[in-house]
Design brief:
- The chain has a two-stranded antiparallel sheet with strand order 1-2.
- 54% of the residues lie in helices and 11% in strands.
- Strand 1 and strand 2 form a beta hairpin.
- The two termini are 15 Å apart.
- By secondary structure, the chain is mostly helical.
- Helix 1 runs antiparallel to helix 2 and helix 2 crosses helix 3.
- The mean pLDDT is 92.
């Protein structure tokens, strides 16, 4: 198995974990696991939201509108040491 294959498996596993947390309404844990404390989230009709609390609120609102999300992974290319 190549390094790219291993990285791809890890990314896919993290995406599935994100989806599982979202479905289970474990939004705060999901945000802590996937976003840095000073992360910024922006959207087309949304001003920049900064930090875990703001991003958690975005996903809580999204969870009220839909029960699950699905993340599609593009093929991964590894350049350099991972």
């Amino acid at each position: 198995m190549t390094e790219t294959d291993l990285v791809e498996q890890q990314v896919i596993a993290k995406c599935r974990q994100f989806e599982t947390r979202f479905r289970a309404r474990q939004i705060a844990a999901m945000v802590r696991e996937f976003y840095l404390p000073d992360a910024i989230m922006e959207g087309r009709d949304m001003p920049a939201q900064v930090g875990h609390e703001a991003i958690t609120q975005i996903f809580k609102q999204a969870r009220e509108a839909c029960s699950s999300i699905s993340i599609e992974a593009e093929p991964i290319t590894v350049i350099g040491k991972v």
